[in-house]
Amino acid sequence: MTNSPPVSLQFLGAAGGVTGSKYLFSYGDDQLLIDCGLFQGLKELRQRNWTAVPVDLARLRAVVLTHAHIDHSGYLPRIVAQGYQGPVFATPGTCDLLKVMLPDAAHLQEEEARYANRNEYSKHKPALPLYTVHDAERSLQLLRPVRNAEPVEVMPNVSLNFGRVGHILGAGSARLSFKIDGQQKTLLDSGDLGRYGRPILKDPEPAPNTDWLLIESTYGNRVHPKDSENGLREIIKEVAARRSCLIVPAFAVGRTQELIYVIRKMEDDGEIPTIPVHIDSPMAIEATEIYCRHTEEHDFEMAQLSSHEGCPISSRHMVIDRTPEQSKAVNDVKGPIIIISASGMATGGRVLHHLKQRLPDPETTVLLVGYQAEGTRGRSLQDGAKELKMLGEIVPVRASVKVLDGFSAHADQDEILRWLGTFKKPPRMTYVVHGEPAAASTLAEVIRDRLSWNVEVAKYQQKIPLQ
Ligand SMILES: [Zn+2]
Predict the structure, then answer these.
(1) 69 Cα to the center of ligand 1, angstroms
(2) CA 465 from chain center: how many Å?
(3) Separation of CA 362 and ligand 1 centre (Å)
(4) For the sheet containing 152-155, what is the strand order?
(5) What is the pLDDT along the chain (467 residues), one digit of tens a residue?
(6) Sign of the C-alpha dihedral, residues 307, 319, 251, 230?
(7) How far is the CA of 300 from the centre of ligand 1 (A)?
């Protein structure tokens, strides 16, 4: 039989970097996108969001989203604005998070365009947003929830399966099944691989066999420290004893929920005194509710606790700051106090006005719990900056700044290898994606040396025939 249609895969993002995840799968005349993410970070990358993706929307039959993070989902409203009206497949948890995250991303795009017009720094007049809140709302209409491990036909002759990978609520690997010359073949994208033994969510599931594998490599060349919870405990004890303030810039989805859960556990175990914890991020508040609602994703401990006393993602003295007025009022609150607020790298959001208010005070502690990308205020703080520019002012930094790396939502090298060890037989070919060049090439070497698999680092825009 030789009348099979040509089948191929093209890397349109998250190849040579960690953002802009987009893999174009072609099966004859039909095409499908696995992930539809925004490029973020350096300007050169962000500009890619403005150049047309080489996807013929008339041939695009489906979009599959592995999870809700904007670098995997945030380009969807752009293709919807350009005319895409087909289905978007994602897990129920992802669909719910997207209802919060996509309108928020659109709102930021609109704000940025307004700011550029006001300050006339854009060469385009008037500056336009990449997409609008209306485009985001239209994208949400296209969502088709698909439960973990339930196969669904996503376009003619191609079916999809999600597999649980931890990382954040709803996150899955995506496995496509299709026929070539009458033979069943599969392509598996790991999505963002989470970690083992972390609170709230179940561990990654064992991997199914596959012919072609895409494996993420964000931390492909690193191993996470194991003692982050001890570090957090000591910091909170010190803040309580000194009656001072702890500010934690944290991603609203995932990291904030894990922090609250861990703080509550320490309180229950009598390891730290109860002090007020302010959750000052509207998106974090909504995301926490979504986390609590999706019981199908809860691990054993989370399920046990939920059945006894309601959702355990809540500290004993938790204060929710919903409105801007409530957020501003926190400025007058004396310690001891913990403020958890977005954004995680202090690039924007409400955390800025807390930092502006409290960084000049040597009694304040700032705790960085996530990856701080180059060029962000979080990175400057981590590197020991003595002053920071924010909200139109130069703010002196007299607070003490601490860093805990172990709260990452991504598998480290050991955990990636643990997951790869669950394959019953090696994939025919493995492509390393979603990593900075050093992380991706190190992981590829390790896979080649230790597992003796066929492996290659994916290149941006590279197209591979699947046959
Ligand atoms: Zn992610």
Answers:
(1) 5
(2) 29
(3) 34
(4) 152-155, 158-164, 172-180, 183-189, 212-216, 429-433, 455-457
(5) 456 899 999 999 999 988 899 999 999 999 999 999 999 877 888 889 998 788 999 999 999 999 999 999 999 999 999 999 999 999 999 999 999 999 999 998 998 888 878 876 666 678 899 999 999 999 999 999 999 999 999 999 999 999 999 999 999 999 999 999 999 999 999 999 999 999 999 999 999 999 999 999 999 999 998 888 999 999 999 999 999 999 999 999 999 999 999 999 999 999 999 999 999 999 999 999 999 999 999 999 999 998 887 899 999 999 999 999 999 999 999 999 999 999 888 988 899 999 999 999 999 999 999 878 777 899 999 999 999 998 889 999 999 999 998 888 999 999 999 999 999 999 999 999 999 999 999 999 999 999 999 999 999 999 999 98
(6) negative
(7) 23
Radius of gyration of the chain (CA): 22
Give me ligand 1 centre to Cα 150, in Å. Answer: 22
C-alpha distances in Å from residue 287, one per residue of 93, 169, 171, 188 = 10, 9, 14, 28
Q: How far is the CA of 281 from the centre of ligand 1 (A)?
A: 19
Distance 364 CA to ligand 1 centre (A): 30
Identify the residue whose tokens are 């007020």: 276
How many Cβ atoms are within 10 Å of 428's Cβ, its own excluded? 13
pTM above 0.90, yes or no: yes
Residue with tokens 């809540």: 314
CA of 422 to the centre of ligand 1 (A): 21
The span from the CA of 448 to the CA of 458, in Å, is: 15
- Tell me the CA–centroid distance for residue 66 and ligand 1, in Å: 9
Going from the Cα of 410 to the center of ligand 1, the distance in angstroms, rounded, reads 8
349 vs 339: CA distance, rounded Å: 13
